[in-house]
Amino acid sequence: MKLLESFFEGALWRSRYVVLFAVVASMIAGFAIFYMCTVDVFFMIKHIIHYADPDLSASARQSLHEDTITHVVEVVDGYLLATVMLIFSLGLYELFISDIDEAKGEARSSKILLIESLDDLKSRLAKVILMILIVTLFQEAIRVKIETPLDLLYLGGAIALIGLALYLSHASDAKSEH
User: Fold this and answer.
1) Pseudo-torsion of CA 125, 128, 130, 136, nearest 10°?
2) I need a labelling partner for 160 at 20 to 30 A (CA). Which of 16, 58, 87, 150 fits?
3) How confident is the model at residue 18 (pLDDT cuts 50, 70, 90)?
């Protein structure tokens, strides 16, 4: 019976390696998003070279300006999402497979890695997701046409809620440090 128990527990313990599929898939997804955002930046720069064209009308220049700001915000959003995928991938690896030995000697690793629990991973991901939400709100705020005082109130309410989320996020960090 002890042999069967030992075999079963060993199989259970080794089953954690199934997480490698999620680690690799998340890493590939992160690289894909980094690639797409970088290509977007390349074409955006290629497109905005025409901004200095003296033949460009004022309305066309204004439109190009607004489009460029929107694209920059979208790229920032994409890079943040890619970062989420990398943090998730590295965090899963550290939690289920093994510590990343090379990261232990790096000063920067303590800022993004060295995840010791699922709560650590969730906390780090939540911060990046909050940043994505802030960038998305900024992106939408650029596009919104304020036509009534209620529209302005909604925008102000959204900004206040984001501020509250940031405050609570930092307050929980300060509380966990003590």
Assistant:
1) -130
2) 87
3) very high
